[in-house]
């Protein structure tokens, strides 16, 4: 057999290669340039801001991946949002039983949790989702939780997970992700449900949430706000398909002591008043209602989970985009991006 490669004759006089001082300085210069280029890219990514947003209450991200992922993927490909805000991901936070949890990471310390995490990570590693960075805010169990997807070409200045001023603590049940950009803040929330009965403490929990939301919007008025997500309230009669039905709704005949707490959770007079106060005091606008003055019985609602109403076409709008009034006065282009046809809602089933 012929040899295709001839042995190389060693040169006894040869020496090990050395790098001259000039060669070394050239390489160092090249490395410096590369580092500077990377830093410049990061700066540019920080300067670039999202203009196209989508919010979706997934009602279990794992189930949506198993049952609706092709449809959702196609939806994302068609609309190409810069930001995807998700509520009710319903994935537990990392950490073994009895140990402190890490609400920014998916649980993977058991066989079942590892398998579920793999399902999610595989789905997010394929187009179009591989083009996004993901931030998680998770509950200790399969309950509530939020996620925020931001295109990799866009870098927020800061991401936190609480309504509090310091932002150091993580919001219980993973209900908040707050991203700060150069010219505005983006808030993704899954607000707690008001519940039916005062003695179950859900009324108090919702009142506390609304109080903290009011404090938040007043404290952060230095920048415009884009607030999106499941706010679990229908502000006006136009925001429900059948106002009288939802106003009179009750659970097993129970009537709360306070008349303003009567009705379907999310449509009680008490909740609606508090929500109105948040909008007014925070100088905020319901973007969808700003652009759609009339009731839309086909596409104007996002929830139909009432035990009776879901079978009778009775629905509510509890998923919102809320923006600062100042965006209308200061930047028409930005306002249009936030409030016109670029705002999309993927309605849950």
Automatic annotation (TrEMBL):
Residues bound to Mg(2+): 57, 88, 230, 232
Protein name (database record): DNA-(Apurinic or apyrimidinic site) lyase
Chain intervals for the UniProt region annotation (Disordered): 1-45, 92-116
Biased composition (Basic and acidic residues): 102-116
InterPro entries per the UniProt record, alphabetical: AP_endonuc_1, Endo/exonu/phosph_ase_sf, Endo/exonuclease/phosphatase
Pfam family, one: Exo_endo_phos
Organism whose genome encodes this protein: Abeliophyllum distichum
Domain Endonuclease/exonuclease/phosphatase residue range list: 54-332
Family: Belongs to the DNA repair enzymes AP/ExoA family.
Cofactor note: Probably binds two magnesium or manganese ions per subunit.
Keywords annotated in UniProt: DNA damage, DNA repair, Hydrolase, Lyase, Magnesium, Manganese, Metal-binding
Reported cofactor(s): Mg(2+); Mn(2+)
Site (Transition state stabilizer): 232
